[in-house]
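PROTEIN SPECIFICATION:
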Amino acid sequence: MLEKNIVKDTAKALGMSQKELAVEIGVSENTTSSWNNGKSEIPKWALKLFEFMKNEQKYKNQDEKLDEIITLTQALKSH
């Protein structure tokens, strides 16, 4: 199963360019470009890695929001 624009969508979700994503996962920009354009199939390891990276980013964002809530709660308690 090949998801359309998965490289582009993953890079966007991670806040990086497709070139930066290629560097991050250790492949050439031409490789990610050919995956994104459907010229070659995205290997299963890359699909799993994209999923992992997006989930990690999601949890990181949630952790940052939780830290903000804790800070605000502590500020309110001190008043």
Remarks:
- The two ends are 55 Å apart (CA to CA).
- Helices lie at 6-14, 18-25, 29-36, 44-77.
- Residues 6-77 form one domain.
- The chain has a mean pLDDT of 89.
